[in-house]
Amino acid sequence: MYYSKNHEGLVFIDRDGGNLEIHGNGIICRGDTELWNPVENWQEPFTTVTVQDGITEIHSGVLDQFSGMKKLYLPKSLTRIERTDSLKTLLHANNVLIHAAYGSYGDAFAQEYGLRFLPENIELGWYRDEIHDESTKLILRFYEDGTMDLLIDIFTTGISAGSNGGASLD
């Protein structure tokens, strides 16, 4: 876990396997990636960068640092990414996949830059059965190969104390 020296509450979490999550609120600037006790070139090993909900803007020089990035997950809270030629070059050279909600800023960003786009899952319906203490969700899921499926996700508390149960049907 890396903490920003210049942006209180901004945290970079290494989830292993080349996955980085960026947590915080508001605007991220290049200087915000200066860390307490950083490992030299700490950004290089990450191939997947996930910006969590709460981040509203990403200024120039932030994403450019992740030279190995192949996937970029963008939240619904994001309203702006400062565009530069170096960022555009990186995104196209790495054939970066943008993962975001339909109709979001991330969707528009991917379209404008001509990047591959993978929509977030869409919850189509939710039902709560109070009598049987059961919840059911119907979710449309999307995959990188262009396929999609429906997930019926059922959750119910068990019949004994401390037991939880559920089922998924693809």
Question: Can you walk me through this structure?
Answer:
This protein has 170 residues and is mostly beta strands. It has two domains: 2-119; 122-169. The chain contains two helices and 14 strands. The chain has helices spanning 85-93, 105-113, and strands spanning 2-3, 11-14, 19-23, 26-28, 48-51, 55-58, 71-73, 80-81, 97-100, 116-119, 122-129, 134-142, 148-157, 164-169. A seven-stranded mixed beta sheet has the order 1-2-3-5-7-9-10, with helices on one face. Strands 11-12-13-14 form a four-stranded antiparallel beta sheet, with no helix packed on it. A three-stranded parallel beta sheet has the order 4-6-8, with no helix packed on it. The longest helix has 9 residues, at 85-93. The two termini are 35 Å apart. The model is unreliable at 159-163 (pLDDT under 50).
* Strand numbers in spatial order across the main sheet: 1-2-3-5-7-9-10
Mean pLDDT metric: 88
Instruction: Determine the N-to-C terminus distance.
Output: 35 Å
> Based on helices, strands and strand pairing, what is the structural class?
mainly beta
Amount of beta strand = 35-45%
Low-confidence parts:
159-163
Order of helices and strands: EEEEEEEEHEHEEEEE
Estimated radius of gyration: 19 Å
Overall tally of domains = 2
Total number of beta strands: 14
Number of helices: 2
Can you summarize the main beta sheet?
A: 7 strands, mixed
Helix content: 10-25%
Query: How would you describe the shape?
Result: globular
Quick structural gist:
This protein has 170 residues and is mainly β. It contains two helices and 14 strands; from the N terminus they run ββββββββαβαβββββ.
